Structures are given as C-alpha cells and as structure tokens.
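quick one
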Amino acid sequence: MMSSLSCFDLGEHMLSVDEARQALLTLVDGQLATESVALAQAHGRVLAKPVTAPFNVPGHTNSAMDGIALSWPEEGVAGSLRRVGSALAGRPFAGRVGSGECVSITTGAPLPPGTDTVIMVEQLQQHGDVVDILQADRVKRGQNVRQAGEDLRRGEVALESGRRLEAAALGLLASLGCASVEVRRQPRVAVFSTGDEVTAPGQPRADAAIYDANRFTLMGMLQEHGAEVLDLGIVPDDPQALEDALAQAAQLADLVVSSGGVSVGQADHTRAALERLGRLTLWRIAMRPGRPMACGVMGDSATPFLGLPGNPVACMVTCLVFVIPLVRKLQGRELRSPAWQAVADSDFRSREGRTDYSRGVLKRSDDGTLRVVNTGSQGSGILSSMVAAECLVEIPADKAAVAINDMVTVFPLFRFP
Ligand code: AMP
Ligand code: MG
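structure w/ magnesium ion:
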C-alpha cells in the first residue's frame, strides 16, 4: 500500500504529488507530547484532548431581554399584571410568582421558578406596581427565554481534539471555567537558506547577489501554522558548512527545512552532507512550480529533512503542499486545510501528468458563485504573484487543460484580516 512506503522506497521515477506527500508523512511517527498552558497563552495552540462541558451553558434558564417575567396563563395574556419583585443578572428572585403577577427582569437574569415567558420593556406601560401590556395579542408563550443548556449540554463535546484555538474557542473555554488547556507542544522547525549568492537583508548586496526571501516566507508560513521556528540563517554552498548546519538542526528540531541547493548540478554537496548524517533521497515530482526536492532523515533522532527548491514561489508552494501537512501531523490536526470549489474565471496553466499550482484571487459573481482568477504572471520566481494571491489553485495531474467556467479546487491562503 502507498502509505506504508517510505521515502526511500520510491526510487528515481517521477513521483506524483500524492505519492510524495504520503511518503513524507511516514517520516513523522506521530503527534508531539502534550503540555498544559494557561488560557491566556493558548491562542494558536492545538487542543490535545476534546473538551466537554462540565455543566449546562447557559447554566440557568434566563431572560434574553429587559422586561417582565410571568407564568403563561391558560387563557393567554391580556390587560395588566401586578409586579411582586425583581430578578437581576447575578441576583435571582427568591419568591413565588402567582397568577396575575410578574417580576421585572434584566437580560441574563435567571427566570424565577414557575415563570416561562418574558415581555420586553418596550411593550409595557408601568404605573407603580401595575404593569399594562401593550399589544398583548403579540405575546407568545416562552418568548425571549434562553433555555438552560441550549448552547451546550453538560457532558457534550464543546471543542474537538486537534482544533487550533482561535478567539471564539478561547472564549468558549473561558465560559466553561477552563483556566488552562491541554495542548500539543509546538513543532520546532529549523529553517535555513543555502547559496553563495544569497544575502541576509541588512547586509550590503554584492553585484550578483540576491536577498534571502525564502527564509522569511518559510518562517512566516510555519508560524502562521503554529510552529516554533529556529532560524539557522544562510549556509554557504560548502559541504562542511552544510553538514554542520544540518547536524545542529537535527538535534534541536522536530523537522528541518532548507531552500535552494537541490537543483541538478547543485545537489551533490547536499547529498554528500546528508548521506554522512543519515539518509537522503532526491525527488523529481510531477508538479509545477517546484520540481527538485530532497528529503531524508538525519542523526540518531531520525529528524526529517526537506530541501525545497530555491525559486521563491516554488519554495512557498512546496512548503504549503509538503511541509505544512507534516507540521499538522505533528500537531494532531487534519493533514490538509479545507479545500473549496470555485469556477475558473481565467485560464489556468495545466498539463496532463503534472499537478499545477497557480496563484488565484477569489471573487463572487452576481449570482453569488465563487470564482477564481489567476494573479497574472505565474513565473516561479515572481513573489509578487504570491503576495497578490488569496488562494492556491490546484489542477490535478489527470487534467490536460482548464477552460473558463470549469470547476477547480482552491486552497485559501492564510491571511491576516
Ligand atoms: P537553487 O535551487 O539553489 O538552484 O536556486 C534557484 C533560484 O532561486 C536561483 O535563482 C536562486 O538565486 C534563487 N534562490 C535560492 N535561494 C533563495 C533565497 N533564499 N531567496 C531568494 N531566492 C533564492
Ligand atoms: Mg542555490
């Protein structure tokens, strides 16, 4: 079976994206250990266990409005009622509410025993303790009442294991009284760039040099997906320097990712360094952008290594397609983010036998259909196409061409709002 094949069994033939991804996933044993963190520190972390509600939410049947609470009379409400007290949020009414009686009540206050209906204050006229109901025929039994447990029942799963905690989830946990949560340790991912021409921003740029974009796109994507990044800088095209960087990374990290130095003609010292430390295989993958890729394991810890292509777009795309699923596996999450379907609103590059990834921008047609347009120039060095993109458009290998109005699969990219 495909999923039991390791990276090293695949040989030298051209791999499909799925074959490569499945094989890479075998490099990661399982999920990381768990730890308990305070709720205020838990944003972006991944739940390691499901959280069940320890009590009903809301805990009491309560009022959704400011007004009066009453017990629904058999014959329906009419005329006036006598106010016998008040129920405030945090200060319930202790007495009894008889027929023809009511209590004033504020939003969130528990309904006094026996009452079941709330009439909002805008529908009342009050003279001392006598309350007249306006448009009494509009009042319905049970209106404006939130039932105990209508949000969550005691014992119900409130949040599933593997869920990344965003603002709403943190609020829900707080409302359940959780002061801390059990989450996965963050995956530690070491990142470095290779290449004699690659220069750190802030350094003077020699004539044929380029600034190191890949380290920053990789670190950004990894952080966006909840990893802790170890920045190992730029490693020159030198076998010993590479070996040292890799050996250090293997000890510190759960996963090591580099860019550059794996294309034909450059790969030899990457291969040499990795083969001294562990095992390496070089892949040709039937995808665009991003063909040359290296993968392997290093050191006693068998730390997985991925060597991504140097072209900045290819580097980002291969990170999203191959590295992020590994991060998600370590975190105990679903391996891929959810895909959407959209209608192609422009041409997309495609060739049979190859998976094509284009950068897309989403829009809605007048009838509400989700449509996707390419971002223009799709060269694998054109990073501005990635900046403009809202999604990756994935055209599978069995599709020879995509025409306008064809349905395509898109993966939304992480963006700050
Ligand atoms: P390579 O895979 O090392 O052959 O690099 C392919 C192309 O990507 C070359 O034009 C490199 O200059 C460029 N490149 C490699 N590393 C980086 C980097 N860290 N940032 C930006 N461009 C890079
Ligand atoms: Mg290079």
